[in-house]
Design brief:
200 residues; alpha/beta; six-stranded parallel β-sheet
Length: 200
C-alpha cells in the first residue's frame, strides 16, 4: 500500500485527494499537514518501515512557508516527495528537480495522471506532468547559461520584487540590476517581466 501525506494549507485539496484515492486499492492518505511543524510531528509518529512506503504530496506555496522547505526535511529522512501545485511554471519544475523531489504535477491534471505520477514515484522513478515537459526542457537549457548572480536575480524576479529591493538584496547598484535583468530577458527571449513570468 502506498501511503500519502498531503501537505497543503487548503483542507479541501487534501479531502479531494482522499476521495480520489479511496477509489483505488493501492493508495491511501495516511496524514494531512498544513505546516512544516505538523509534518515534523507527523513523521515523528512513524517507524522507518512505515515511512519507506510513504510519498509526500506537497504544495509549493503554503500559507507562510515554502513547500520546498518541507520537501528538504522529508527527503533528508528518506521520504519521496511529489510536488502537487496550482503553480505550474517551468521554473518551479526545474527547482523541484534541483531539490531532488521525485516529481511535479499540477492541480489541474487529470485524475488518471495523478495516479500515474504517484505510482511512478513509488517505483523510484521521476515523473513530470507530460504537457509541462516542453517548457521545462526549454528553461533547463537556459538555466545552465545563467551566472550565479543571474540565478539569484531570477529567484527575486519570481517574487515580483522591484529593482530597488533586488539591488539591496544582491548588494549591488540599481543600474547593475537593470543590466542583469536585460541579460536575463535576452537569454529567455522575452521583452518584459510579464513574458518572463511564464517561466518562473
Amino acid at each position: 500500500m502506498i501511503e500519502i501525506i498531503s501537505i497543503d494549507d487548503h483542507e479541501m485539496i487534501s479531502l479531494g485527494l482522499e476521495r480520489v484515492f479511496s477509489e483505488t486499492s493501492d493508495i491511501r492518505v495516511s496524514g494531512f499537514c498544513k505546516t512544516k511543524d505538523e509534518v515534523v510531528a507527523f513523521v515523528g509518529t512513524k517507524s522507518p518501515q512505515e515511512l519507506n512506503q510513504t510519498i509526500a504530496m506537497i504544495d509549493i506555496k503554503l500559507e507562510n512557508e515554502s513547500g520546498f522547505d518541507c520537501a528538504d526535511f522529508l527527503i533528508g529522512r528518506g521520504i519521496n516527495c511529489l510536488m502537487y501545485s496550482s503553480f505550474s511554471n517551468a521554473g518551479f519544475i526545474v527547482k523541484t528537480l534541483e531539490h531532488k523531489i521525485r516529481g511535479f504535477i499540477s492541480k489541474n491534471a487529470a485524475q488518471s495522471e495523478i495516479l500515474e505520477a504517484i505510482r511512478a514515484v513509488a517505483r523510484g522513478e521521476t515523473y513530470i506532468q507530460k504537457d509541462l515537459i516542453p517548457d521545462m526542457m526549454y528553461v533547463s537549457g537556459i538555466m545552465v547559461t545563467l551566472t550565479k548572480k543571474e540565478r539569484e536575480l531570477l529567484d527575486l524576479l519570481g517574487e515580483h520584487l522591484p529593482n530597488e529591493l533586488i539591488a539591496e538584496k544582491l548588494g549591488v547598484s540599481k543600474r547593475t540590476v537593470e543590466n542583469y535583468v536585460s541579460r536575463v530577458f535576452d537569454k529567455f527571449n522575452v521583452k518584459n517581466r510579464y513574458e518572463l513570468g511564464r517561466y518562473l
